[in-house]
Amino acid sequence: MTELRHRGAEAPIQTQPSEDKGSDSELRLEKDGASDGEWRNWWVRGILTLAMISFFFLIIYLGPIVLMMIVLFVQIKCFQEIITIGYSVYHSYHLPWFRTLSWYFLLCVNYFFYGETVTDCFFTLVQREEPLRILSKYHRFISFALYLTGFCMFVLSLVKKHYRLQFYMFGWTHVTLLIVVTQSHFIIHNLFEGMIWFIVPISCVICNDIMAYMFGFFFGRTPLIKLSPKKTWEGFIGGLFSTIVFGIMLSYVMSGWRYFVCPVEFNNDSNRFQVDCEPSELFQLQDYTLPSFLESFTGWTTVRLYPFQIHSIALSSFASIMGPFGGFFASGFKRAFKIKDFANTIPGHGGIMDRFDCQYLMATFVNVYIASFIRGPNPSKVIQQLLALRIDQQLHIFNSLKAHLTEKGFLPALEDVMA
User: Fold this and answer.
1) 3-class SS at 302?
2) Rounded CA separation 51/56 (Å)
3) Fewer CB under 10 Å: which end of the chain, C or N?
């Protein structure tokens, strides 16, 4: 690890200046007002932010398949940006296979996760096609065999005197896979629960990023954390309240549309995705009694809200309070390697990973939140799995379920029916 740090300090990873320290004149400029360069950067960031938001609305209109492809593209680009930083250090030792093995492990992990998703969400299609049924049956064994092949390739690539560095980079690859690929898989799962679980969390993170930047730019005076010297308490607090209000309003608008609230399901008859259902109670207006202090302040006794709006407060609060820690983590990572951004993909914003460092943490939280407080048993999936069983297995389950319901008193006893 010591030799990696020494060589890493010499390796020309990127040429952007470090944000660690600024000159006294720059500090004076920040105190007196924004410089021309800062205003120019503000406009560049603003214009490109609007362009990215417009592109986001476009892919939402194009539907869940396009969203899945965009998530996959973002995942690959983020992985490439992080691996490139490690490769810049590793390549100086002329050691073999690091980049090749990194991309191979990315392929293996994606095969595993997307195979699990296909089996879960396209169950009837998988059972209908013989090759897919075989791949589904032995999916985890195939995934393990693929990973084992890469593991053996890594062991064979070990070079004397550089074992520590090679194991360090092996860990680098796997941590990157954990951060990027696993959490991208969570985004896909959130999407299938309903596009509102995909759009609202992502929009809250974007809103918090924009509003925290604006409040910090115009009102920021008090530093928030040393890892990000430009982050201020004023921006943090302003972004928090703005994001909560935004999340409640966006949830109200989207909860009235089936396209956004219905789970994304595969229609076996038409062989395509469909987003159509009877909205659950989460997306039906209900009356809520206001607390006394709010009643005296607003003059209202009750208010009509979608239950999802209550959940949106938790989502937007996490996006504002805990979400930035994904950015702080990324800032610490970049400072460790003395780089400003992960890449130069987006002018004024840096790389794709610079824009999605908070999104991955948010996606994990949403997935955990749904599993803990929202998701219940899905009868349609249970029925699909039952229909895939042999007839004798179906009859066994039917008789067991009938006996259970009869014992509980929900069905008349067989003797009563015969009488």
Assistant:
1) strand
2) 9
3) C
- SS3 at position 272: strand
Out of 1-10, 82-91, 150-159, 329-338, which region has the weakest mean confidence (pLDDT)? 1-10
By the 8 A CB rule, do 271 and 286 touch? no
Which H helix or E strand runs over 83? helix 64-90
The predicted model gives 84-102 an average pLDDT of 78
Residue with tokens 């607390």: 291
Q: Is 89 exposed, middle or buried (0-12, 13-18, 19+ CB in 10 A)?
A: buried
Question: What whole-number distance in Å separates Cα of residue 359 and Cα of residue 269?
Answer: 35
What's the mean pLDDT when you consider all of the chain? 82
Q: Is 279 helix (H, G, I), strand (E, B) or coil?
A: coil
pTM listed for this prediction: 0.79
Scan for tokens 């393990």, then name that residue: 144
Residues 174-230: pLDDT tens digits?
A: 999 998 998 899 998 898 888 999 999 999 998 998 899 889 988 888 988 888 888
% of the chain at pLDDT higher than 70 = 84
- Whole-number Å distance between alpha carbons of 404 and 396: 12
> In sequence order, which ranges of 262-390 are alpha helices (DSSP H)?
292-298, 307-321, 324-336, 352-369, 379-387
Measuring CA to CA, which residue among 2, 1, 38, 10 is closest to residue 337?
A: 10
pLDDT of residue 404: 86
CB atoms within 10 A of CB 370: 17
Give CA–CA dist 9/13, Å, rounded.
9
Q: How far apart are CA 79 and CA 89, in angstroms?
A: 16
Token pair in block for residue 403: 């006996």
Please give the structure tokens belonging to residue 304.
């009509």
